[in-house]
């Protein structure tokens, strides 16, 4: 029987379920963040639209990534110990591509025509292509195929120079990274930047950006492109990321972290059409894998000897921390080719104690996954009053969202958008034309513009400024202090108020009442979030139960370059917030360390950067990983531990036990004695958890390795996760930190539920199939995500005989899925009349038993 996916209910391989999930999680996470007007830390939802880019709904059609079992170049090189000649590498790359060709040719003989969009041979073997359900079914059953995976969407995870030089920026609006290694600037180190296009001729980047590749448009011009709909809107993220890493000689002595390093720009995201036909900035997971292929082989000659030392991924695949996804496999392949992949944790904030909100490819164990810390020491607030007539709607101290502070008390009339536009529509971002009446006169010139924040608050504020507004009051989600930060297009004070306050003013304006705003001079206030993981930064675990992120770094309000020119002709600069900004900081630190210690391989770099961090006292392991980046401690470190984090899985009850291993590497030129211990406060005690180490002490020769086994045992049952840090202590050297975590098994893993078949008895039909719908995966209490690693749909005949697996789907996010049952078998033959059973098996991503369900139907 052929199973046909109903297009309206769910795109191929259940992508709609992933989209619906994102909306659900964000609405729940908004409450989990827990900050309002009464103090406390800022909620994750407050940063929505300010980090990364707006997430437009994107249709990927029926694109899939097919991963083959044939060894890739990375596999072949690893099998010979990491050393291979150019001739060997070319031969192995050609063999991987030939495996693609053989499979495609064989399927063509069966009537299935495949036109690959991307071919992979270096970090993994396979290809991506748009395929119909019949082709997917054939590929899943092909012995050459390791798996068929859905293509998903990735998003960027995130004023003139005179403003910086003149010191007009409000406290907290922007920050500078304080990550340095005296005597080193990253010279000789290449960092591949997988992001949107980069403006290489920006004065801040001159001479630091090399020739790259444009994966999106398949050419060699990876420059930042302007929107086809609005030439004033550039792809910003790639230029901003490049500035954080290699920028130099900026205004007021502004510099990037590794200003001597070079950036290899690889455009894997940019202006593309989204589901409604409009243009938006995004990329696809198949484009990201193609970008990693180019990062390890920049000249595409099949040899990885010119691979970038570090690959900085600036995009993120939300809620996709699958360890076996094509992106995760590609990251592991890059590491085997000695390229360290630094990836953002994501910008989806708080999650539950189980699987968290980590984005892909940051869920890969091979990635160095970075969360964002807010280390700003101060922010600015203003006293804001909104009134109409003698009454006031709003009167309180609010944070300044933008970079420009009022230099005196402001008293302005309030003005709203053109009435033809729905003023309560907060979901859409206003356009410039919304600020003008039908005769072309500005509605907000010289006034304070009352504007819905929409999905892109910075852009909304910039349009109001273009229309002549003297101040901007955004309404909707309350924005955090400095959330918009430095933006060339926002040269007036910007504040935000709750949605109810904005609606009250709109009602007064509609009734003809004169409405006013008074805004006091800015006052400096201590930052509530200083020394914390930023509220928007995604938390772990990854879907395989491993601790992610690996570490955190500064990621809020970092000053950097921006594409384009200001009105005064100077170069544009901006500030960037997001876990991608934090990843850029770590990538820059990695370049400094690689220059200072050129003998380190990619795994050693990863181990040193993650293992020498310092712990943020009030943050969990799931939020910060090992802790905050400390490059000064990484430089002299003599040893590294891999993996950089440990997860012991799910505790069940008293007597539960699990064993993990830790590989210790001596990176020095002297023998080292090491011992592994658990911090005193983490040994269990009242929590009922004990550890044993075998061996507890090791002696490792210079350049050698040793393996230590760590056994954990629960002395009593527990209802909440337990976490801590192992210390690898060395004689005469600082210890290496390895965070660990034990999660709790849910009372029931229900991966399949709410099954419904539209008709229990039907005739075979391709045009009017019966529809099977069900819930796969779930979102448990506390926003605990439980995805499905693999879903099998198998058919049993009237006599109970096994008729094979009809469909096999991988990496499913929680959501509702619908399939059309046509009454045909996998070969396309019509089923004989009789009673049949369809068996559904959902395998979890981590530990645990699969979920099972069955549906019975009759073919007439």
What's the total helix number? 14
Question: Mean pLDDT across all residues, rounded?
Answer: 82
Q: For the record, give the distance between the C-alpha atoms at the N and C termini, rounded to a whole number.
A: 14 Å
Task: Work out the radius of gyration.
Answer: 28 Å
How many distinct beta strands?
Answer: 46
The structure class reads alpha+beta
Question: What's the overall geometry?
Answer: globular
| Strand-residue proportion | 25-35%
Helix content: 10-25%
- Main β sheet profile: 8 strands, mixed
Give unreliable regions as ranges: 1-41, 159-169, 423-427, 680-686
SSE order and pairing:
Blueprint: E1 3-5, H1 15-33, E2 63-68, H2 73-79, H3 86-109, E3 118-120, E4 126-130, H4 133-141, E5 145-150, E6 153-156, H5 161-165, E7 190-195, E8 213-214, H6 237-246, E9 262-267, E10 269-273, E11 279-284, H7 285-296, E12 310-313, E13 315-316, H8 326-336, E14 340-344, E15 368-374, E16 378-388, E17 391-399, E18 410-415, E19 448-452, H9 457-466, E20 471-476, E21 494-498, H10 499-510, E22 515-519, E23 523-526, E24 532-533, E25 551-554, E26 558-565, E27 571-576, H11 579-596, H12 602-611, H13 621-624, H14 631-634, E28 639-642, E29 646-651, E30 657-666, E31 672-678, E32 689-694, E33 697-700, E34 705-714, E35 722-730, E36 733-744, E37 752-757, E38 761-762, E39 770-776, E40 778-780, E41 784-786, E42 788-796, E43 802-812, E44 815-821, E45 834-844, E46 851-859
Parallel strand pairs: 7-9, 7-12, 8-9, 12-14, 14-15, 15-25, 18-19, 19-20, 20-21, 29-36, 38-46
Antiparallel strand pairs: 1-44, 2-4, 2-5, 3-4, 6-11, 6-13, 10-11, 15-24, 16-17, 16-22, 16-23, 18-22, 26-27, 28-30, 30-34, 31-33, 31-35, 32-34, 35-36, 37-39, 39-44, 40-41, 42-43, 42-45, 45-46
Helix pairs in contact: 2-8, 6-11, 7-8
């Amino acid at each position: 029987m052929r199973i046909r996916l109903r297009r309206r209910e769910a795109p191929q391989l259940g992508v709609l379920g992933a989209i619906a999930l994102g909306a659900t999680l964000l609405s729940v996470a908004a409450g989990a963040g827990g900050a309002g007007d009464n103090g406390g830390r800022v909620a994750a939802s407050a940063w929505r639209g300010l980090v990364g880019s707006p997430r437009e709904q994107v249709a990927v059609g029926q694109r899939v990534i097919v991963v083959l079992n044939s060894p890739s170049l990375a596999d072949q090189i690893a099998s010979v110990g990491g050393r291979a000649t150019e001739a060997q590498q070319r031969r192995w790359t050609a063999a991987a591509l030939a495996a693609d060709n053989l499979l495609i040719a064989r399927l063509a003989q069966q009537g299935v025509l495949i036109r690959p969009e991307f071919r992979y041979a270096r970090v993994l073997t396979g290809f991506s292509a748009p395929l119909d359900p019949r082709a997917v079914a054939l590929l899943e059953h092909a012995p050459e195929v390791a798996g068929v995976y859905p293509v998903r969407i990735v998003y960027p995870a995130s004023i003139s120079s005179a403003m910086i030089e003149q010191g007009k920026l409000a406290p907290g609006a922007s920050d500078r990274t304080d990550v340095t290694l005296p005597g080193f600037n990253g010279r000789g180190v290449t960092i591949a930047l997988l992001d949107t296009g980069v403006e290489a001729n920006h004065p801040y980047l001159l001479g630091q950006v090399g020739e790259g590749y444009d994966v999106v448009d398949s050419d060699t011009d990876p420059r930042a492109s302007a929107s086809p709909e609005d030439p004033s809107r550039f792809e910003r993220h790639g230029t901003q990321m490049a500035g954080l890493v290699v920028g130099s000689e900026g205004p007021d002595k502004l510099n990037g972290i590794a200003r001597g390093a070079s950036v290899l720009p690889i455009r894997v995201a940019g202006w593309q059409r989204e589901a409604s036909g409009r243009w938006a900035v995004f990329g696809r997971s198949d484009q990201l894998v193609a970008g990693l292929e180019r990062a390890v082989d920049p000249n595409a000659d099949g040899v990885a000897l010119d691979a970038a030392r570090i690959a900085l991924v600036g995009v993120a695949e939300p809620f996709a921390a699958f360890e076996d996804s094509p992106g995760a496999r590609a990251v592991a392949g890059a590491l085997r080719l000695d390229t360290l992949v630094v990836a953002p944790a994501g910008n989806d904030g708080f999650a539950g104690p189980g699987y968290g909100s980590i984005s892909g490819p940051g869920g890969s164990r091979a990635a160095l996954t970075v969360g964002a810390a807010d280390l700003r020491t101060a922010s600015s607030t203003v006293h804001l009053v909104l009134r109409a007539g003698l009454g006031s709607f709003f009167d309180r101290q609010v944070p300044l969202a933008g970079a420009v502070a009022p230099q005196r008390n402001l008293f302005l009339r309030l003005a709203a958008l053109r009435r033809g536009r729905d003023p309560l529509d907060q979901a859409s971002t206003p356009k410039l034309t919304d600020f003008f009446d039908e005769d072309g006169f500005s509605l907000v010139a010289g006034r304070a513009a009352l504007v819905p924040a929409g999905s892109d608050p910075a852009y909304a504020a910039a349009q109001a400024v273009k229309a002549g507004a003297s101040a901007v009051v955004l309404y909707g989600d309350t924005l955090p202090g400095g959330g918009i930060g430095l933006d060339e297009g926002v040269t007036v004070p910007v504040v935000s108020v709750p949605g109810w306050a904005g609606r009250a003013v709109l009602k007064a304006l509609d009734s003809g009442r004169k409405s006013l705003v008074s805004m006091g001079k800015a006052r400096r206030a201590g930052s509530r979030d200083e020394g914390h993981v930023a509220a928007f930064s995604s938390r772990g675990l990854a879907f395989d139960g491993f601790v992610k992120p690996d570490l955190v770094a500064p990621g809020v309000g970092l000053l950097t370059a921006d594409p384009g020119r200001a009105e005064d002709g100077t170069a544009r600069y901006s500030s960037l917030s997001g876990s991608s900004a934090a990843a850029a900081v770590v990538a820059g630190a990695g370049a400094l360390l690689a220059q200072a210690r050129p003998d380190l391989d990619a795994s050693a770099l990863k181990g040193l950067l993650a293992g020498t961090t310092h712990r943020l006292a009030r943050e969990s392991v799931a939020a910060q990983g090992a802790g905050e980046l400390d490059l000064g401690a990484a430089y002299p470190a003599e040893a590294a531990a891999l993996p950089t984090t440990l997860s012991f899985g799910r505790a069940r009850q008293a007597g539960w036990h699990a064993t993990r291993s830790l590989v210790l590497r001596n990176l020095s030129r002297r023998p080292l004695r090491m011992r592994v211990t658990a911090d005193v406060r983490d040994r269990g005690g009242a929590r009922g958890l004990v550890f044993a180490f075998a061996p507890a002490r090791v002696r490792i020769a210079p350049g050698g390795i040793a393996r230590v086994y760590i056994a954990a045992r629960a002395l009593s049952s527990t209802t909440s996760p337990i976490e801590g840090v192992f210390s690898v202590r060395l004689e005469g050297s600082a210890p290496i930190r390895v965070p660990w975590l034990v999660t709790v098994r849910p009372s029931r893993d229900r991966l399949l539920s709410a099954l419904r078949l539209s008709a229990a008895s039907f005739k075979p039909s391709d045009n009017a199939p019966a529809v099977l719908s069900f819930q796969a995966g779930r979102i448990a209490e506390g926003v605990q995500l439980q995805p499905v690693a693999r879903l099998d749909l198998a058919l049993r005949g009237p006599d109970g005989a096994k008729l094979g697996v009809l469909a096999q789907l991988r990496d499913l996010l929680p959501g509702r899925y619908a399939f059309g049952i046509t009454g045909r078998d996998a070969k396309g033959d019509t089923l004989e009349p009789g009673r049949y059973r369809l068996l559904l098996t959902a395998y979890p991503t981590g530990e645990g038993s699969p979920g099972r369900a069955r549906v019975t139907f009759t073919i007439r």
